[in-house]
Amino acid sequence: MARTKIALVGSGMIGGTLAHLAAMKEMGDVVLFDIAEGMPAGKALDLSQAGPVEGFDANLKGTSDYADIAGADVVIVTAGVPRKPGMSRDDLLGINLKVMKAVGEGIKNNCPDAFVICITNPLDAMVWALREFSGLPHNKVVGMAGVLDSARFRHFLATEFDVSMEDVTAFVLGGHGDTMVPILEYSTVAGIPVPDLIKMGWSTQEKMDAIVKRTRGGGGEIVGLLGNGSAYYAPATAAIQMAESYLKDKKRVLPCAAHLTGQYGVDGLYVGVPVVIGANGVERIVEIALDDEAQKGFQVSVDAVNELLDACKGLDSSLA
Ligand code: A3D
């Protein structure tokens, strides 16, 4: 029986971390693809040499040839450029759109049956463009953002409540950006909703508002601290969780950028919503009731994604 094959398109900071995690978890063989000559092969060799120490068996290969991703079961796309201090995710649009075209064609020609997870920013527009360029079914192309945004939210909540991260669930909807919508009513500690915890005196609404604000700016905070590049450990961990849910048919309920066809009143866009990921990719969109404030916040987010798509269509006529 052939081992599962995981192709990482883009072998920079997130790509390298993805390869490390996939190898350590023995998820399968790993192909690191990048346009940078030599670098993916160097990372693959370095990681392979961690195998004897850590005790994992995985073939790791670095390449700049799309033929090497042939037959991949999962493709995780980080190809492109990350943000520099002062840049918004949207500033990346023009450069990364061209990259998505090349990557989409590489996937279409070599592994059209793969489950594809896009991480490249601006996320909601890039995952849409990648799907268009690759021509894969919508349920097999998904964007990673919500798992990361909710992990940031969970981390801040767990720290505030002084409880285990494991016991905190959190809920973030909408586009990946400053318009994302963290929802306190659906965020819990061991099933107890945050508004009830406020009533129990565990925290205050002011502190929760500050956490929501910090979650929205979570990526920018790290960009500012690093001084060069953007977050990579947590983004890689989040994408691996999505890949595992697909490969093991776990049917995890995870917030992802998924293609909506009328749910939440949105048609034809990729926006962050809770979905079930199993062996058939995105198997279900979970549509929850939103109160007026959340609905308004979600709409602002959808409008921002729509603007990005219009910009993409202006830049590449094949998308119009
Ligand atoms: P980085 O370390 O620069 O890696 C990107 C890699 O892509 C580099 O090694 C490039 O050589 C490579 N590359 C560029 N063009 C191509 C191409 N045409 N084909 C193949 N490879 C190419 O960046 P990173 O790993 O830190 O981040 C990657 C992307 O993820 C960026 O767009 C970030 O903005 C984005 N990101 C998204 C999130 C989300 O939550 C959605 C979080 C963090 C970063």
TrEMBL record:
Database matches in Gene3D superfamilies: Lactate dehydrogenase/glycoside hydrolase, family 4, C-terminal, NAD(P)-binding Rossmann-like Domain
Keywords: NAD, Oxidoreductase, Tricarboxylic acid cycle
EC number: 1.1.1.37
Molecular function GO terms recorded: L-lactate dehydrogenase (NAD+) activity; L-malate dehydrogenase (NAD+) activity
Domain Lactate/malate dehydrogenase N-terminal: 4-143
Catalytic EC class: oxidoreductase
Lactate/malate dehydrogenase C-terminal domain residues: 148-305
Name assigned to this protein: Malate dehydrogenase
